[in-house]
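Input (structure):
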């Protein structure tokens, strides 16, 4: 048997916390650590959330930040760094261990689409990481192409591997959907405005104005000042570190006929894969790297940024007009998630790049 590749996993997000970074670091590390051809260990002072809370009660201290200059890199064959530009940058001249820079956006994209102030220094640092890393892996082809255009770099050392589904266990079989009347829509988001929460509410109102029975479940941070129209229900925040909340979210996905996300800016939101894993097609804005997740007519449909609530309502009605076709779309969504959008697939493809 060939010796296993020894990999250090580096991230500014706690890979033992299912809630941090929407669980992305947790599931990425878990998928790598489960591979027979890898030996993966976490770099940094991270602890499980329950352990951290215990320490805080006793010592009244918080989890220390990662110091890249104090990391133990002994014996490593490679470092997989997840959205960790600020941690990778000081390592470029301090270690010979090859670094795989895994990320989902460029600074210019964050500035343009999220409206965050991003300085020129940040762009310079990202370009230097792109040039110094052995390999940079984006979560979408769209973002990889943007990076080469905006930051330069060697195309041979820039590629893409889609992220996986942030779920402990995928449903073994596609759940049976309830009857289409009433139509059950689901929205999940932590940023009401950016994730198009109001557009989703207005879409619900437009649907009900046509006589279509419809309900919309809202999971996440819905401002208390928002007056919900008939048919909308505020679920609130669900914590993925709590089994009861995980089970409730899974139940909501399984019951939904469509997942709707009129997002104003996104990279590659893996909530798409979560919906698909429960046989729920997705109706989402075609922005950022979402095109790497959606295959039109297979697992959902993308809407133009300028589409209004009536356009979204019309698209919803078109997707459910034929119950047989909607059922087939649900099955195709389930298959798409299980074959292409898992963290196991991500770890497999990333490992192939390392070997």
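Output (sequence):
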């Amino acid at each position: 048997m060939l010796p296993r590749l020894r990999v250090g996993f580096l991230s500014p997000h706690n890979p033992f916390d299912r809630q941090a970074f929407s669980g992305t670091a947790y599931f990425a590390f878990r998928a790598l650590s489960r591979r027979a051809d890898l030996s993966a260990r976490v770099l940094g002072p991270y602890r499980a959330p329950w352990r951290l809370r215990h320490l805080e009660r006793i010592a009244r201290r918080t989890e220390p930040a990662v110091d890249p200059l104090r990391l133990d890199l002994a014996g490593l064959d490679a470092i997989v760094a997840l959205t960790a530009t600020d941690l990778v940058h000081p390592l470029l001249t301090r270690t010979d261990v090859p670094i795989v820079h895994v990320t989902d956006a460029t600074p210019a994209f964050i500035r343009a689409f999220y409206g965050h102030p991003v300085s020129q220094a940040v762009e310079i640092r990202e370009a230097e990481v792109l040039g110094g890393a052995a390999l940079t892996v984006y979560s979408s082809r769209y973002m990889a192409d943007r990076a080469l255009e905006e930051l330069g770099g060697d195309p041979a050392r820039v590629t893409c591997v889609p992220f996986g589904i942030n779920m402990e266990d995928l449903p073994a079989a596609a759940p049976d959907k309830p009857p289409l009347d009433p139509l059950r829509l689901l929205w999940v988001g932590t940023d009401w405005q950016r994730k198009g929460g109001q557009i989703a509410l207005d879409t619900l109102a437009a649907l009900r104005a046509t006589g279509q029975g419809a309900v919309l479940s809202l999971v996440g941070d819905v401002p208390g000042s928002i007056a919900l129209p008939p048919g909308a229900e505020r679920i609130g925040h669900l914590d993925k570190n709590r089994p009861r909340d995980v089970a409730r979210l899974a139940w909501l996905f399984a019951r939904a006929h469509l997942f709707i996300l009129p997002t104003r800016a996104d990279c590659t939101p893996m909530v798409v894969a979560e919906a698909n894993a429960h046989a729920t097609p997705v109706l989402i804005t075609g922005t950022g790297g979402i095109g790497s997740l959606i295959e039109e007519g297979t697992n959902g449909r993308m809407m133009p940024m300028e589409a209004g609530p009536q356009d979204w309502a019309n698209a919803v009605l078109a997707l459910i007009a034929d119950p047989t076709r909607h059922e087939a779309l649900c099955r195709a969504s389930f298959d798409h998630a299980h074959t292409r959008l898992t963290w196991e697939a991500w770890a497999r493809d990333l490992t192939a790049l390392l070997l």
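Notes: The first strand starts at residue 5 and ends at 10. Residues 238 and 288 are 26 Å apart (CA to CA).
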